Amino acid sequence: MSTAPALSVDGLCVEFRTRSGIVRALDNVSFSVAKGETIAIVGESGSGKSVTAYALMGILDPAGRVTAGRAAFGDLDLLSATPRQLADVRGRQIAMIFQNPRTALNPIRQVGRQIADVLIRHGNVSRKAAPAAAVEMLRAVGITDPARRAKAYPFEMSGGMCQRVMIAIALAAKPSLLIADEPTTGLDVTTQAVIMDLIGDLAAKLGMATIFITHDLALAGQRAARIVVMHAGHVVETAPTAPLFAHPRHPYTAELIAATPDSAANLEDLAAIPGSLPDLRRADLPPCRYSERCPRKLPACAQPLPRAEAFSGHFVACWNPLPEQALSAPKVSAA
Amino acid sequence: MTTLLEISELSKTFTAAGGPGAWARFKRRFSGGPENLPKVHAVDDVSFVIGKGETVGLVGESGCGKSTLVRALTRLIDVSDGTITLGSRELARKTSRVFARDRDRARIQMVFQDAGESVNPRFTAFAAIADPLRRLRKLRGKALRERVETVARQCGLPLELLQRYPHQLSGGQRARVGIARAIAVEPDLLVLDEPTAALDVSVQVVILQLLQRLKREFAMSYLFVSHDLSVVRLLCDRVLVMYLGKIVESGPAADVFAHPLHPYTQALVAAVPRLHDTAHERLRLSGEPMSPIDPDPNVCRFYGRCPRGAEPCKSSMPALRRFGERHVACHFAEEFLTRP
Fold it and tell me: Which of B201, B209, B271 sits opposite A193 (nearest CB)?
């Protein structure tokens, strides 16, 4: 794995104007992906995972606005790029897999044609050769009888197959960065495993960097080399997967792990996370957006968050993190 | 353990040539009767019991017939064949329309998947919880108000939220409304259809613990439908694994997940991502399940996707056989049983 980052996001801030005030959805989000690396962004709903992806792709809702930050993708800053530059990069070099393939695919266009569209626009394939190339793409994502399936409409296929088509579309132009926004939510676990294997295998084959967005900590741990934990629009912790699970340092990460059903032997051992996300419209948001729920809160938490990254690549945005090599997983009180 | 509900040889088929369209109309008109039309075997010869105070998990992939089975045993739809015995009463012969006004209607209640979708958007939380009490308990006025408030308190729903509409509530609060509405009439059996699927992990924990506490307090039995095996493992005493309308494996939840016997269960367990498990086995299912429309009764439903599939699977449907506390429907169950 080379160390040159495929994408480096620095200080990304996004605001949404709403009738009830300005929602500061992302605040100072920074992370990077190396070439060929798979990272996962995890967090609960409302933590800003998807907004991050949309901001990078330049497909934010019109009410949303990037107020600060840089996202260096090669020589291009994705956040200040012109629409024309972005249109050129999207699909060709950066591709995205959306959450719900049934709504993301065009319902009245045969799937083979939808793949051919991308190939013609971005893949240097002639109009004549495109249909055959689309069938090849379908074969590559493991659809049996691809020639017949290319003529099918999305509603004629199962959820797993639609997701395979989405993957075929995303990978048609052999991008160098893939953003997968909850690619397996709503699929069965058996299908999920197959789809994740497929994304992993193809990413390895094409040497793609992958940003994998999910709320499932266990799935992220299984598939990603590094994990970015988000809470209320902040990146609270970034670390390689194994150390993150073994010794989470941010209190929120620790509680998230303790709340995952897989981590406990019985229901009583599962820890709930007290409180809820802060209202991001508030003017007096504390610098640490977790501080109001945090069991380890100190007076020092009122100052701006630390931004230093440890030598090991373990980043924690916390003034009172859990000790670096805690002997056992921290016990958090159940509410 | 005394038996609360006994399901015996339950089947539900749907006629496949239903619906609108000239071709479907043509087929119905000239088929010579509904028995000649192709049928979807959604639930096929399913038998099991739920004991008093027991939590039974029902797992399987989408389209395997979980929801049809649940809707049949809660008597929301009519069954094609078989019996449903609640206590000493046989319920399958009553049509769902008649059962809706039956005195035992209150004994089986259901919590639906997403309370945001399943609670009438024009009902406040109070009205939603009061509705079954009004219809089944005939409560009115002060008695009704008191009962709703008691149940809301038991479910951890603050009383000031009772005047709100579903869209004004958070996911966790909506889940509580769904649960409160179901337990308001004091059922013996609560059927939970993926009650936490729409929730974040932190909220999911709270709801699962609430369910556990309610079950103890009111001595209810649960049938817990889920595709999240790690949740089923935590909550359930016994688990039923369904594949294409049939139960392929059942047994104590811990045993089934630690040592699955049916190849489908093995694939299902292998597919669940684990937090502290880096060495994941790559047992993967290929292909799609076979069509549930008139499947060959002499071929194992899992044949074709099964990694162990062999000659006997093509010529006879494996019966659900008993091994101690467990039941497995596979010709090669012994082989998996002796494997460490």
Answer: B271
Contact B273 A160 (CB under 8 A): no
> Which ipTM was obtained for this model?
0.82
Contacts of B297 (CB under 8 A, 6+ apart): B317
Picking from A144, A192, A270, the nearest residue to B271 by CB comes out as A192
Specify the higher pLDDT residue, B18 or B52.
B52
Mean pLDDT, rounded, of chain A: 86
Average pLDDT over residues A76-105: 89
User: Are A89 and A189 part of one and the same domain?
Assistant: yes
pLDDT, tens digit (0-9, with 9 covering 90-100), for B135-180:
898 888 999 999 999 999 999 999 999 999 999 988 889 999 999 9
Chain B contacts of A255, Cβ < 8 Å?
202
* Number of CB atoms found within 10 A of residue A74's CB: 14
Q: Which residues of A touch B197 (CB under 8 A)?
A: none
Among 3.40.1190.20, 3.40.30.10, 3.40.50.300, 3.10.290.10, name the CATH number for the domain at B3-27+40-338. Answer: 3.40.50.300
Which amino acid is it at A241? T
Hey, which residues 194-233 in chain B have their CB within 8 Å of chain A?
200-206, 208-209, 212, 227-231, 233
Residues 269-288 of B with CB under 8 A from A: 270-278, 280, 282, 284-288
Mean predicted lDDT score pLDDT of chain B: 88
Residue A11 lies in a domain: yes
Q: What is the mean pLDDT of residues B291-312?
A: 85
Task: Give the span between the Cα atoms of A178 and A203, in whole angstroms.
Answer: 8
pTM to 2 decimals?
0.85
Distance from CA of B61 to the nearest CA of A (A): 6
CA distance B2 to A36: 58
Chain A, 89 to 128: residues with Cβ < 8 Å from chain B are none
Pair A136, A197 in one domain: no
CA–CA separation, B177 vs B190, rounded Å? 14
DSSP labels for B193-233?
Answer: ESTTTTS-HHHHHHHHHHHHHHHHHHT-EEEEE-S-HHHHH
Per-residue pLDDT at A327: 45
**A42 min Cα distance to partner chain B (Å):** 12
Find the CB nearest A190 among B234, B268, B273. Answer: B268
Q: What is the rounded distance in angstroms from the CA atom of residue A150 to the CA atom of residue A170?
A: 16
What's the confidence (pLDDT) of residue B146? 94
Give CA–CA dist B192/B211, Å, rounded: 10
Domain C-terminal end among A140, A174, A208: A174
| Chain B nearest-CA residue for A193 | B271
What are residue B210's phi and psi, to 5 degrees?
-60, -45
* Shared domain check, A82 and A156: no
Q: Where are the domains of chain B?
A: 3-27+40-338
Residue A225 pLDDT exceeds 80 = yes
Question: Does the pLDDT of residue B128 top 90, yes or no?
Answer: yes
